[in-house]
Amino acid sequence: MKTLKAGTRLKSAACDTEVMVIRTRPEPVLLCCGGMEMIAMDGQKAAAEPDAAFAQGALVGKRYVDEQDTTELLCTKGGKGSLSLDGALLVVKQAKALPSSD
Amino acid sequence: MAPVRPLAGLRVASGGRGHASDYARSLLASLGAESDSPCDDEADEHPALAWRRSGLMALTGRAGGAARMCPVPLTSCADGALAALAALGDGLRAAPGSGATLMGVRARFAGLARQGATSPGGTCRLLACGDGHIAINLARPDDWTMVPAWLEYDGDADWAARVAELPAALLLERARLLGLAAAVSAAPTPRSWLELKLHGTPKAPRPRCANAERPLVVDLSSLWAGPLCGQLLRELGAHVVKVESSARPDGARRGPAAFFDLLNAGKASVQLDLASPAGRDQLRQLLDRADIVIEASRPRALRQMGIDAEIWLSGRRGRSWLSITGHGRQGDAAEWVAFGDDAGVGAGLSELMHRATGERLICGDAIGDPLTGLHAALAAWASWRAGGGHLLALSLDAVLRHCVSFGAPRSDDALHDRHARWTRVAKSRRNIAPAPLCFAPQSRARPLGADTAAVLSDLGLRAA
């Protein structure tokens, strides 16, 4: 379990996936990729493959949210593992609406 | 590798004396065409008057302060790009100043005004950071939700104060990771406006008049640059189908109607559900019929839908694929988002304005958009005339850097001298009205999806 903060970058222990936290709740959460808890960017990866139940993959550029919409992550590098929060898979959020002008 | 010159051997009439005419000829030369100058060469309008006439002078400067002169002839570049396009095709009323008028038209329709270091549209801010100045353009409503993550702070504090503490390189890197449009203000460096690659064999060159063979343009772009390009091609005789995703229609539909009409009236409107396999299949079939594709997305976005520019080009001879990006299609830069105002800062305009005036300013209104749209139309029509087969890659960054480096003063002294002289020239006239547009909408733009069934059935495709 870790307490996350907006802007925190994490990587998967089991695949190439990297994320940035966009927003989250103040309590500690268990954020996993491929079924293993995500680690700091300078952390040591495990020599394991993603758990088959968490291996649908994470797509670069997509934003992922939990069902209660408390936490949102941006996938900054894609990988084989799926993202999950406290055991539940995160889902892809709809792409940003275009601006009316720029 | 030698650069591809699609118009090699073509002689076109391109006269005139001055910055705009010189710029037109330099663009035509970069495409391989030779310019024949008629003997009755007329002088172009002075770049300072052109800047003021376009409306951009009134849009540059502090609110309540003086309207500011741009010390590089950007509006002349717009006129030159339009003149070069008119030299290759029929149907545009390219009067002197018509290209420049396009640069100020959005602000005129929307009633925008200058706001100093904030863009006239209000979404782009030029902010002081730890070691310089950075532009951040929070144009999409959702972009604001990314700011706490961008700055690693709790979201309640003054975000500009947080920006002031952090170094530019870190802010830029994190903005790019988050898909936010950002640019560091720096001195301008030149870039080539167009990357052009030949894929397969072109068809025979085509005549300037498109009556015999009207290209089918599928326009997947939104906002300003891409739609302007499509509209210019339509004026030159193309049949243009504007394709929008049901989930993410063109955001400009929510802006001033007159502006949306200007860029999109006369195009057929097709709406597809690109989230569904059936919708993506319809898009692929529609693209299969197209002669020219205009898209302004990151290459990754179309690839994720199974659409690949190079494969499409090799599917049939004579096609042209026009890609408009923020920073190009290659490497990491392919992922970087840019909009018109931040791209102007990244290309060095705010640095030039600061050296000339001492003020930190956004220059013009979404300045990368109309310039890129004009250059994109030139590239697309040149490729069509040359028989196609080209992947044409333009970026807001490259087009702006190319324009900024055209006729830029070589020293700070020359910059100050020119700024002072051009400011006097601009103020020497009392009233100065914009030049007429090179096209005017005859009608309203089609409602979203109004032509979906008709277009699909015309092309023998199944409606959903």
UniProtKB/TrEMBL annotation, chain B:
InterPro entries: CoA-transferase_III, CoA-Trfase_fam_III, CoA-Trfase_III_dom_1_sf. This is CoA transferase. It comes from the Bacteria. Transmembrane segments: none annotated. GO terms for molecular function: transferase activity. It holds the Pfam family CoA_transf_3. The keyword Ubl conjugation does not apply. It comes from Aromatoleum toluolicum. Keywords: Transferase.
